[in-house]
């Protein structure tokens, strides 16, 4: 509303100025960085909720043997295997690797043998795995894939410091952009 003194003096009404309004680039970078960070936090929560609430197991994919279904850096959530039945052909399982003691293997069930041992195969591999997996070696059956959220863990384990540094630098930039105030200090004077 125009003050009565301005009307009486015949002063034309001026549109409100944008003084004090945040710069559009600052708003866009803030919204994008906060959206990305919020999505990452949501994915982290989503990846941990079944572990905490249901007793599932979470694992970070380390190799490309299951491409394109699973990519390095994906987090896969595994439901404990049912003890009364064998996983079906086509299901992705987590098992103790029979060829590398102390290591885990995530592959798809390729064949169930008469004694319920499993022959597995990575989707990107040309041949099935040579050593069968005993049912007692099963750790879980894949139920959920959370893409990319474990990328920094995968790079750390693979001892790839440059790509990991790039990921961490990107995260630091996102955090910095998200924390910047929308109004600069000069606009408050």
TrEMBL record:
<dbReference type="GO" id="GO:0009003">
    <property type="term" value="F:signal peptidase activity"/>
</dbReference>
<feature type="region of interest" description="Disordered">
    <location>
        <begin position="1"/>
        <end position="22"/>
    </location>
</feature>
<keyword id="KW-0812">Transmembrane</keyword>
<dbReference type="InterPro" id="IPR036286">
    <property type="entry name" value="LexA/Signal_pep-like_sf"/>
</dbReference>
<dbReference type="InterPro" id="IPR001733">
    <property type="entry name" value="Peptidase_S26B"/>
</dbReference>
<feature type="transmembrane region" description="Helical">
    <location>
        <begin position="36"/>
        <end position="61"/>
    </location>
</feature>
<feature type="transmembrane region" description="Helical">
    <location>
        <begin position="165"/>
        <end position="183"/>
    </location>
</feature>
<protein>
    <recommendedName>
        <fullName>Signal peptidase I</fullName>
        <ecNumber>3.4.21.89</ecNumber>
    </recommendedName>
</protein>
<keyword id="KW-1133">Transmembrane helix</keyword>
<keyword id="KW-0378">Hydrolase</keyword>
<dbReference type="InterPro" id="IPR019533">
    <property type="entry name" value="Peptidase_S26"/>
</dbReference>
<keyword id="KW-0472">Membrane</keyword>
């Amino acid at each position: 509303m125009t003050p009565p003194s301005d009307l009486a003096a015949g002063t034309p009404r001026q549109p409100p100025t944008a003084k004090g309004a945040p710069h559009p680039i600052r708003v866009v970078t803030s919204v994008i960085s906060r959206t990305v960070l919020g999505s990452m936090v949501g994915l982290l929560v989503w990846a941990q909720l079944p572990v905490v609430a249901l007793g599932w197991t979470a694992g970070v994919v380390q190799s490309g043997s299951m491409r394109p279904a699973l990519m390095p850096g994906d987090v896969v959530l595994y439901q404990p295997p049912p003890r009364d039945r064998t996983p079906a052909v086509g299901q992705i399982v987590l098992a103790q690797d029979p060829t590398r003691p102390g290591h885990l293997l995530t592959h798809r069930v390729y064949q169930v043998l008469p004694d319920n041992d499993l022959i597995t195969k990575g989707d990107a591999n040309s041949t099935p795995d040579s050593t069968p997996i005993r049912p007692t070696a099963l750790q879980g059956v894949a139920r959920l894939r959370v893409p990319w959220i474990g990328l920094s863990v995968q790079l750390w384990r693979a001892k790839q410091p440059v790509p990991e540094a790039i990921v961490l630098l990107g995260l630091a930039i996102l955090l910095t952009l998200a924390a910047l105030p929308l109004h600069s200090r000069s606009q408050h004077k």
